[in-house]
Amino acid sequence: MRILALETSTEWCGVAAGDGARWLAREERTGPAHSERALALVDAVLAEAGWPLAALDGIAFGAGPGSFTGVRVACALAQGLALGADLPVVPVPTLSALAHAAWAGSGAQRIVACLDARMREVYVAAYARSESGWREIEAPRVLAPVSIAGPEGSDWVGAGNGFAAYPGLGRQLGLARVDDAARPTAQAVGELALPRLAAGEGVAAADALPLYVRHRVALTTAERDAGARL
Q: How many C-beta atoms surround the C-beta of residue 84 within 10 A?
């Protein structure tokens, strides 16, 4: 099966296309300019693959949690492309894609995925890998770093820029090590989405929704004056 995957929930904008055996990906560190570059990256990846949109079997996107704007960009683009081509959509939690990318890079199989959520909070979840795939040990949530407790057991590894924003968090959670440069990638989104697509778990474009976790979309004046960001 052929799938197109989008990941724009962090400052990176990524697009990947693959069928499980072969993946092509383009990624740029765009900051908040995802909407300016995402469609161009889609065009570039599909051209490199030699696949028209109609040749795809589905579209996946990093559904969050993450940057509100970035998550909405990926969701809207996935919906628009899928609606026009009559394709199913597979929303993939961003933190699971982060864990998958960290596993692909290091082989770690017990991962605490953590992204900086601004507002003195982080998005965090825990995943363990087995022969059948990933098992969610702790669901995605948003917490102040001081409120997070480490998962039970040993050999847990931290991944994501939440550990760069709060350097003491890895020690607090008793993690074996931390990769604070790990990030969710479009290929990781695609690799997680492919078996779900094959199992018929794709949804209609209109039913593909983001996973925000935090539902605040605006700051108070005092928070803005203090330099807080969503």
A: 11
Tell me the C-alpha distance between 217 and 67, whole Å: 10
User: In whole angstroms, what is the distance from residue 124 CA to residue 114 CA?
Assistant: 4
Residues 141 and 190 in one domain: no
Check whether the bond before 91 is cis (ω within 30° of 0): no
- The CATH number assigned to the domain holding 10 equals 3.30.420.40
Query: Is 89 a domain residue?
Result: yes
The number of beta carbons lying within 10 Å of the beta carbon of residue 139 is 12
Cα–Cα distance for residue pair 228/130, rounded to 1 Å: 39
Asked whether residue 83 falls in the same domain as residue 108, the answer is no
**Is 219 contained in some domain?**
yes
Both tokens assigned to 218: 């605006």
Q: Which domain holds residue 103?
A: 96-179
Q: What is the pLDDT along the chain (230 residues), one digit of tens a residue?
A: 999 999 999 999 999 999 999 999 999 999 889 999 999 999 999 999 999 999 999 999 999 999 999 999 999 999 999 999 999 999 999 999 999 999 999 999 999 999 999 999 999 999 999 988 999 999 999 999 999 998 999 899 999 999 999 999 999 999 999 999 999 999 999 999 999 999 999 999 999 999 998 755 554 556 455 665 54
Q: Name the residue among 97, 89, 95 with its Cα closest to residue 208.
A: 89
Number of H helices, E strands in the chain: 7, 10
Question: Residue for token digits 């940057």?
Answer: 67
Closest alpha carbon to 122 in 193, 191, 178, 72: 178
Quote the number of domains for the chain. 2
